[in-house]
Write a structure and sequence with these properties.
Layout: E1 4-8, E2 11-15, E3 17-20, H1 34-43, E4 47-52, E5 58-63, E6 66-68, E7 71-76, H2 81-88, E8 91-96, E9 105-116, H3 119-129, E10 139-142, E11 145-148, E12 151-170, E13 176-181
Antiparallel strand pairs: 1-2, 3-13, 4-5, 4-8, 6-7, 7-12, 8-9, 9-12, 10-11, 11-12, 12-13
Length: 182
């Protein structure tokens, strides 16, 4: 496929080059389109983030992430391990999917986590968080941070990850390994 540009909320987005890796796919498998992969990221209830500690050891933890304007956003407290890791190495992997071998699609996002403090963007991201699960992710924006409406004293830092590469692994009758490169 080719690269194309789309304007979303005033931001120019580049659609990825999408390929099927035939080495890891059934002969009749087809690449999963970016629209399908993006929808999986938008609707995921839970993701896992992988970061690297200062001493090189990996760190993985579950979190809620939202897709807004071409990036995944997540929160962390400034005292949490992932925050410390991101200060020294902002490269991350976010994963989502299911634990079934014979059905579903797993998605792996590679990118760089960027600390977000712009309050207009944070307001849009907070509105998307409010749609997750049963609406329990309610944040107010103040001083470049999120504050949980149920715990006003506990700020959360927000990071955004614009994908550089996304893998979509289809499982089941026709296993397929799709790569989206930006």
């Amino acid at each position: 496929m080719h690269l194309s540009r789309v304007i979303i909320s005033g931001v120019i987005m580049t659609s990825p080059t999408t390929t099927l890796d035939k080495r890891y796919s059934d002969p009749d498998a087809q690449a999963i389109g970016w629209d399908v992969t993006r929808k999986l990221l938008e609707t995921a209830e839970l993701s896992w983030i992988s970061t690297v500690r200062a001493d090189g050891r990996p760190h993985v933890t579950p979190l809620v992430a939202v897709w807004v304007e071409g990036a995944l956003y997540f929160t962390t407290g400034s005292e949490e391990q992932k925050f410390a890791n991101l200060r020294s190495n902002p490269n991350v992997i976010l994963t989502t999917g299911c634990n079934h071998w014979d059905r579903g699609i797993d998605v792996v996002v590679e990118g760089t986590a960027v600390h977000v403090t712009d309050e207009k963007l944070l307001t849009r991201v907070a509105a998307t968080f409010a749609t997750k699960w049963d609406g329990r992710w309610q944040f107010t924006v103040r001083d470049g941070r999120f504050y949980n409406r149920n715990a006003e004293d506990w700020p959360s830092e927000v990071f955004g990850v614009k994908p550089t590469k996304v893998f979509a692994h289809k499982k089941g009758e026709l296993f397929g390994a799709t790569t989206h490169k930006f």
